[in-house]
């Protein structure tokens, strides 16, 4: 079984390799990293990269992938749309996390990049509607300074800021970390509010899609 992962940052590669080794031994992962997709999607909107994403998905499947997992929340909807167009299993990494979050009640979304906020809000609304639930009560928070640290290579500093932002949330039933790169902040928080991240449940869903 082979799963292709479409990333917009190389930092995701070791994270998903470690999750594969821990949870899915024997699974073959093929990593495709295209940082420029996030840059253009952030500046022009996700649809600006739709054609390129569709081409990358088609290439991955042609190379033997049984399914594709997009680990970038900003372009996740575009990637899923490419899968529909091509008739192949494509999943956005944050969908399983969103499905869990909308069942909890009040949701606070933390993000380090502004372009991730609206796609995440839309995903939460979609999951709530699909589950027959009332529209999710969603508040979004852009973690000031976190993306700048991440972009400068200070991943630890970025995670510290995300964890502090999570600990400052007092009016939510669940906290969603909108980007996979934020997952390491979960272990740094002291809050009693459940904090959800996407890599582990997203990979599990990708494996399930690849095996069907």
Furnish the topology, listing elements before pairings:
Layout: E1 2-7, H1 12-23, E2 28-33, H2 35-44, H3 50-62, E3 67-70, H4 76-86, E4 90-92, H5 95-101, E5 106-111, H6 117-130, E6 137-142, H7 146-151, H8 155-167, E7 174-177, E8 195-196, H9 199-211
Parallel strand pairs: 1-2, 1-3, 3-4, 5-6, 5-7, 7-8
Helix pairs in contact: 1-9, 3-4, 5-6
List descriptors.
four-stranded parallel sheet; 17% strand; 212 residues
How would you describe this protein?
Helix 1 packs across helix 9, helix 3 packs across helix 4 and helix 5 packs across helix 6. The longest helix has 14 residues. A 4-stranded parallel sheet has the order 2-1-3-4, with helices on both faces. It has a 4-stranded parallel sheet with strand order 6-5-7-8, sandwiched between helices. The termini are close together. It is built from 9 helices and 8 strands. It has 212 residues and is α/β, with parallel strands linked by helices.
Helical residue percent band: 40-55%
Q: What is the H/E string?
A: EHEHHEHEHEHEHHEEH
Order of strands, widest sheet:
2-1-3-4
How many angstroms does the end-to-end distance come to? Answer: 10 Å
Short description:
The chain is of the alpha/beta class and 212 residues long. It is built from 9 helices and 8 strands.
């Amino acid at each position: 079984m082979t799963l292709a992962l479409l990333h917009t940052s190389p930092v995701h590669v070791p994270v998903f390799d470690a999750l594969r080794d821990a949870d899915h031994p024997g699974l073959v992962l093929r990593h495709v990293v295209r940082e420029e997709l996030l840059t253009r999607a952030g500046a022009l909107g996700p649809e600006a990269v739709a054609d390129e994403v569709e081409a990358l998905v088609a290439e991955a499947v042609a190379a033997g992938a049984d399914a594709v997992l997009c680990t970038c929340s900003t372009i996740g909807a575009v990637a899923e749309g490419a899968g529909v167009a091509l008739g192949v299993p494509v999943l956005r990494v944050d969908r399983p996390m969103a499905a869990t979050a909308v069942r909890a009640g009040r949701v606070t979304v933390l993000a380090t990049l502004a372009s991730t906020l609206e796609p995440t809000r839309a995903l939460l609304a979609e999951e709530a509607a699909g589950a027959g639930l009332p529209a999710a009560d969603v508040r979004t928070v852009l973690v000031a300074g976190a993306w700048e640290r991440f972009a400068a290579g200070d991943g630890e500093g970025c995670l510290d800021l995300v964890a502090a932002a999570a600990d400052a949330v007092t009016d939510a039933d669940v906290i969603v970390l909108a980007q996979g790169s934020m997952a390491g902040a979960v272990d740094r928080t002291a809050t009693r509010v459940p904090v959800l991240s996407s890599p582990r449940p997203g990979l599990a869903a990708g494996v399930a899609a690849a095996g069907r």
